[in-house]
Design brief:
The chain is mostly helical and 455 residues long. It has helices at residues 6-11, 39-53, 56-64, 67-80, 85-108, 112-120, 122-154, 161-176, 180-203, 209-216, 225-236, 239-251, 260-289, 302-311, 313-345, 355-368, 371-377, 382-409, 412-415, 422-451. Helix 14 runs antiparallel to helix 15, helix 15 (313-345) crosses helix 16 (355-368) and helix 18 (382-409) packs antiparallel against helix 20 (422-451). The radius of gyration is 25 Å and the shape is globular. It starts with 5 loop residues before the first helix and ends with a helix.
Length: 455
Amino acid sequence: MGNRTDAQATVEQPFTRPTTSNGRALAIEGVSGPMNTEPTDRLRDTMAGFFQEYGLAFVMVASYFGSGSIFIASSAGVRYGYALIWAVIGAALLGFMAQDMSARLGIAGDPLMVFVRRKLGERLAMGLAVLLSIGCLAWALELTAAVGRGIEVLLGGAIGWQPLAVLVAVLAIIVGVLNYEGIERVMTAMMLGLLVLYMSVAGVSSPSLAAIGGGVIPSVPTGSALTLAVSIVGTTALWPNFFLESNLVAEKGWTEMSDLSVVRRDLGIGYTVGGLTTIAVLVLAAAVLRPAGFTQLESFITPGVGLRRVLGSWAQTAFLLGAVAAAFNSIIPIMWTPAYLFEHARGRDADSADRSFKIIYAVGVAIGGLSPLIAIFTSLGVIDMIILFPAYNGIIGLPITAALLFWAVNDRETMGEQENSYALSALNVVLVVLAVVLATLSLPDFIDAVTSGGL
C-alpha cells in the first residue's frame, strides 16, 4: 500500500461536533442521533440554571416549616377559622425582611457570629454559641420525636416511635453531610412537594373563598388570637436562619451588593411557597376540622386523624406524609447552625464541606436522636416536646438573635454604606419587639409546664 496523501488524512479525521463557548455541543440541522439535544438534557439545563440563581430561600423556609408550624397553623384554623391568614402573610413578609438583612450582612460585612466574636470577644461568643446551640439541640430532640411519632401513626402502630426516632437521626446525619448543592436540591424538592400536597388537599375541602379573602384583612378575634398570631410570627422568623443566611450567601456565590437583587428574588419565591403552604394548612383546618366540631388540637398529628373522618383515609395519609417530611426537613438546616456558631466563635472559617463542620453537625443530630431517653427519664411525652422545646427557642434564642442582627446591620464599621436605612431599622425594631413579646407571653406557661412535668 502506498503512503496516504494529506488530503486523505484530512478526510479521515474523526468528526468533531462544534460547541458553544461554554463547551456545550451544538445541535446541527439534519443530523440525528446523540447530536440532538435530548429532553432530559434540556430539563437538566433548566434545573441547573435555576439553582445557579435560586434555592437558598427554600433551605431557609424548610428550616422553619416543621411540626411546630403545622400545629400552630392548624390550631389557628380550628379556633379562629380563616381570621388569622393575615398573620401568616405578615410573618412571611417579616421573615423575608429578616433574611434580607442577614444576607446583606453576609455580603457587605461578615456572618453574624463572626461579627459577634469581633465585638464581644471569643469567650462571650463561645458562651452565646453554647446557649443558642442548646436551643438547636432541643429542636432536634423535638423533631426526631415528631417524625418518629408521625411514622408510627402511618404504620398503624406496628413500630413504636422510639426506634424510629433513632433511625430518623441516622438518616438526617447521612443527608446532612452531603455537599450544600445536594442539600439545597433536596430541600427545594421537598418544599415544592409540600406545597402541591397541602394545596391539593385544601382544594378538595371546598373552602370559602370569601372567608379566605376576609382573613387577609388584619383583625384580632377575642380570646388568645393575638398570642396565636405572635406564635405564627415566632415560628416563621426562625432565629437560626439569621445565622444561616449570612453564611450561605457565600455558598451561592453572592459576594457583591449587585447580587442583592437575585437574593431578594430568591427570598420572594421561597417565602411565597412557604406562606402559601402554611395558609393551605390553616385553610384545611378551617374548612374541615372546625365544621366537624374540633375546638383544639392535641398535636400536629391530630388534623390528620380529623381529616380521615371527613375526607377519608387518603387525606390522613397525605397530611401525615407532609407533616413527617416537613419535620425531617427542619432537622438539617437547624442543626447546621451550631456548626457555624462554634466554628466562627473560635475564630475558624466555617465550610459545610470541612470535616470539623460535619463532625459538629453529626454529633448534634446524634444527641437529637436521644429523644426516646428524654421520654424515659422525664415525664415529657412527644406532644410536650413538640410544644415546649420550640417555646424555649422563642423565649431564649429569638430575642437574643434578633437583637444581635439589629446591632450588626446598624453597625457602620461592619456595613459601611450598606447599614440599615431608617425604614429598615424600624422594621428590625418590630422584629425585636415581637421577639420580646413572644418571649414574655410564653415564659409563664413554659415555666409551669416544665416544673409540673409536662402539659
